[in-house]
User: Fold these one by one.
Assistant:
Number 1:
Amino acid sequence: MIATAQTEKFAAYLRMLKDRSGRGFERLGKQAGISGSSLHRYCSGLSVPTDYRVVHTFGKVCGASAEELRELHQLWALADAERDVPEAAVEQPPPPEEEKQPKVSRQYIVLGLVAILLVGGVAWVTFRPSAEQPADGRLLFSPACSQVSMGQHDECVTEVQNLLSRAHAKITVDGDFGPETLKRVTAFQVLAGITPRGVVDAPTKTALYDQKTSMEVPAPAAIEQKVRAVFTEDPDKAVAIARCASFLDPLWVLPNTNGSRNWGVFQISDARLQELGGTPRIAFDPDWNIQAAHRLWAVRRDFHDWPACEAALQKPTQ
């Protein structure tokens, strides 16, 4: 498995829990029902468990608190989302400060002057980079930004992030196309009526520059009130489940290892959306999403549709 920033964060959290427990891999493995060698691979960042229940059991064995189990679940989800990312698409950390070189490929500058000996004289030819910014200033339509996708770290990604931020998306502008940017690009595409490929293609670039799509959403406190108003039978747990699933973010998107995705406040899966007669666009409506989640809850009057989050809320047993 290719190491990524998310798998490293997940592994580091596992190591913290292990070191705090004061027990070795073999003993913890037996208590968690997994082999010591598998546990060592997880803590080393060499692999990520495909089933969160393994992670949850390990956390409980290590004495993790409910808050730590929720954090562990989020870290696992982000690491799991990067499991099948191709090597060329894995987000790479920027080089150390002393090794960074000025980026000139996308600036309107003269690369050099080449002396060509012609008949009886010298002609000077000026070359400009092919990544020259278009006359209208839309960087994403320059040759250098022909495709902006997972794993890139450059000015093209920064431009995408700035445009998303201008559309009121909650996003860090750091020039890295990682899981956070992938989520926001996918959500923007859904809202703009574009096929949600997660790649910044021509239709997405046009929509970003048009600035006709808003990603502004209600504050988490307002979302919590909506959840409590619908889940009157168990409001506290419903809010905890929603916070675990999406941080109460109506535009949260989480890819699954089988290619499907989960959408919105309660992270309703593609399969469930089809059963409920919904779409990703509708799932981003917090009112619809919360009502749909309540319909799923009402089947057995429990949160069986969110097993990982429900497990994360359980108090660890000694």
Number 2:
Amino acid sequence: MGTKTYTPDEVAQIFQISKHTVYELIKRGELQAFRVGNKMRFEEEELERFKESTKAPAKKAMTEEPAAPVLSFSPIRLAGSHDFLVEHLVKKASAALNLQIQPTFIGSLEGLMMLYRGQSDIAAIHMLDPESKEYNLPFINRLFIYETISVLRFASREQGFIVAKGNPKKIRDFHDLAKKDIRFVNRQKGSGTRFLLDSKLSEFSIEPKNINGYDKEEWNHLATASYISRGMADVTFGIKSAASHLGLDFIPIACEHFDLVFRFSNENKEDLNRIIHYLQSAAFKNSLSDLDGYDIRDLGLAIYPTTNSKTGETK
């Protein structure tokens, strides 16, 4: 489900415009981009759509009524963990619902905090609470007291070690990460994968300082897995689908819950409900493919219909 992406510099070169103009197009909503950490990226399909939109329209008859003005609208902002299925949802829902959905892939913790601060409308998270060993809801219960939110199960994912084909270093468990000849590459602080890794290291009393490469961080699963495919590292901790994308071996460790958190306001509630209905539809489920490492049996299941503490109403 992944597609080719481009940097702002590459987009500027393709359309023979300045990089400043690229950012102006994003600001005006004419060109949709997404973030991976602090890096802006554009999907190939979006560039094709923009190219078609810039073509000169056919001349209209003089008697034709002037076109109605285009109403401006605020995009739906999605922030949180990077995932191939989230990319797919953004693309399909944007097209099916004629919505502008702006994703920012910045990690589970920061995505949830952006939602809490009102800087996004949806958070994509998979955070393990080390005390309860429960995903996502313990953090949500601590943060969202008066806000009206819903949490929907998106998918369950396999997390584990991603290694080269044939597992030449014979990596089997977390203790192997501390071996002198093992090179590791990590996910950034605040990502759900980092939460899970650190919880496991603590469980097995493994000091991060003893892991060669623990401080080397990347912002998504494909970036870390690419270190393995290029021979720049021996192992990373990530999702099975990233290993499958690059033809690498995978050693399963845990199954995690990946959820979407929706925060409702008067301005966004209509659009968020449309996205939820689409997420729960047979049309979206039937559009999913390449599901190695995912379990979507509970896709769209509401796991947190919250009660508004002020009104007593259940969302």
